[in-house]
Amino acid sequence: MQTGVWISLIVYFAAMLGIGFYAWRKSTASNEEYMLGGRNLPPAVAALSAGASDMSGWLLLGLPGALYAAGLVEAWIGIGLFIGALVNWIVVAPRLREQTERYGNALTIPEFLANRFPSRATTLRMVSAVIIVVFFAVYTASGLVAGGKLFSSAFGGSYQAGIWLTLGIVLAYTVIGGFLAVCLTDFVQGLIMMLALIIMPAVVLYAGEGGGFSQAGQTLSGVEGFTLSWWTADMTLIGWLSLMAWGLGYFGQPHIIVRFMAVRTVREVPTARNIAMAWMAISLAGAIGVGMLGRAYVERSGITLEDPETIFILLAETLFPALITGFLFAALLAAIMSTVSSQLLVSSSSLAEDFYKLFVNRHASDTALVNVGRAAVVAVGAVAALIASDPESKVLGLVANAWAGFGAAFGPLMILSLTWQRMTGLGAVAGLVTGAVTVIVWIAFGWSDSFLGGPGVYEIIPGFLLSAAAIVAVSMATEARGEFRPLPAE
């Protein structure tokens, strides 16, 4: 690998570690600072941190790979995500920021649920913490798979070494600097990702014998199995809903909605929302461009690409000088590490606050909780690395499973707990368990691939609907036991 690539990557790694040490000095004195940055994030940092921690390696690997393989029809995933994110910022963000502070200054989602429904506090904290740790181990694994693919494809190294190298760098700044380090690195990484997704499609469009959109369209129209249409002859309504349903997942992603809890004030949420949605629109459009235009370039050039999820890596190596290639690889690492660090921190927060403090040491000091959180970051990361050890793993597949698990378990629960005063603690427990179990069963029986002899149904759809139904049915059938607290005025 050329020297210029390594120079760019070394600068990037040094910057991330530098931010970690800065955050360590500024915001790790207490558990609230380590886990939530003291609730003092500026709107721009909160916005890009939410976006970067959301988009992960699937934005530069999984989504372009899906578009590369099948065509424009896969772009419905991006549209569903954009709509879901916008509604999440409008409905959940301001309410969660206000209510988590008012209900006992909750630092984690399980703690907020326990404070909101004190009659079932212990059960909610236990069940939600277990779901968070289990699904985040899978979700984190998807990021490590992306790191392993980058290391093996771009550098010719070992896939396993790439996994552990990616994890090691993330652990370094996450363990040291906590939530503030994660958010500040996310901010920088989000800018890098967006810039890369602007540069690459623009260059690929005219690369080689490319002549703009017209020639790219002519090339792609002759590719067997590839479509330039938003709808295909074999596309069913269920298939379309399965793509759009990705947007439902936003309401239940702990590593995203925890950013809402950390914004400086409720009044700054709309500013953060506008920044976040602008960033997301640009980044999704760029990822779609990488997949579509990348396929046109590969077809024109006669290149064989075995793994569609490595199209970003191929284009970076083929079309750019060494220093820019290094920057593009840094963007890919940024997408991976921003999400992995966020997921590890949320998992460790739940283990420290919702297990250790609840069952081991109720009077634990802030210093003890910070240290337990740091140890938990390392432990969850090691488990995720083991899950990611199979080099045949698909980034988008792992993300899809974990995304559905969180969306179904926590999505209806968060929306209704923030907006419906009639909801009860038993209803919350019922929705949490129903959503998680439905997703696990759906995946186990392969119904996301084929259901009742027909096309598969993405597991988040039945999980979300059954979870919402369980919350409403059980809440209406049970009596209030102190959980009905007045919600903030609109």
TrEMBL record:
One of its GO terms (molecular function) is sodium ion binding. One of its GO terms (cellular component) is plasma membrane. It catalyses: L-proline(in) + Na(+)(in) = L-proline(out) + Na(+)(out). It is a multi-pass membrane protein. Keywords: Amino-acid transport, Cell inner membrane, Cell membrane, Ion transport, Membrane, Sodium, Sodium transport, Symport, Transmembrane, Transmembrane helix, Transport. Its main location: membrane. InterPro entries: Na/Glc_symporter_sf, Na/Pro_symporter, Na/solute_symporter, Na/solute_symporter_CS, Sodium:Solute_Symporter. The keyword Repeat does not apply. Catalyzes the sodium-dependent uptake of extracellular L-proline. Belongs to the sodium:solute symporter (SSF) (TC 2.A.21) family. This is Sodium/proline symporter. The gene is putP.
